[in-house]
Amino acid sequence: RGANRFLSKDVRLRWVQVVDNEFHARFSALSRSYRFIIYNNPIQSALYHNLVTPETQTLDPQKMAEAGKSLLGEHDFTSFRAAGCQAQSPIRTMLRFNLMSKGPWIWFDVQANAFLQHMVRNIAGSLIEIGCAKRDVSWMAEVLAQRDRKLAGVTATANGLYLVGVEYPEKFALCSSRQDVSYWSGS
Questions:
Q1: 30-81: per-residue pLDDT in tens?
Q2: How far apart (Å, rounded) are the C-alpha atoms in residues 33 and 179?
């Protein structure tokens, strides 16, 4: 708690652990998990306006969930990569995609070995186009296969994007960083 008083209000330490010099927070990671939250309502939320991506058009979560499954596995994610991305390779392995909804809330969880710059936000923008029936469910797989960023949906806002976990090799004996996000999915 003492260290948190010196940090921005947007950043909080939850635990601290000594690690050896072999550990690197970014390059030692086996996978990362993100959650993207959409507030789907004709009237934007006053309380959550900076915390979620608002969408006033009615979305179909089932179509969005079906489209997202085409992202699973190892693919070239160039179509969902920011123009300024500095990653040496666009090849990533999407380990998990799970979309859920309840009332006006739609959220999806993604886990991959790594992500490209704006990858999750670009996926979200494409899912929203599918959800509001501007595109067919099959469009997601087509865009992925084309490897052309200009063909995908717009980049969704960063509001609603949360890093919820990073998995490291067991040899570092780090505690899980995903332990308190399960309430959103009902598990």
A1: 999 999 999 999 999 999 989 999 999 999 999 999 999 999 999 999 999 9
A2: 12
Q: Provide the b/e sequence for 102-127 (b: ≥16 CB within 10 Å).
A: eebbbbbbbbbebbbebbbbbbbbbb
Mean residue pLDDT of the chain comes to 92
Helix (H) or strand (E) holding 110: strand 105-112
Residue with tokens 């084309």: 146
Whole-angstrom distance, CA of residue 144 vs CA of residue 156 = 17
What is the DSSP secondary-structure string of 39-99?
EE-SS--SSSTTTSEEE-S---HHHHHHHHGGG-EEEE-GGGS-TT---S--EEEEEEEEE
What global pTM score does this model have? 0.89
Token pair of 175 as six digits: 């505690």
Which tokens belong to 180? Answer: 């308190």
Closest among 91, 88, 84, 97 to 123, alpha carbons compared: 97
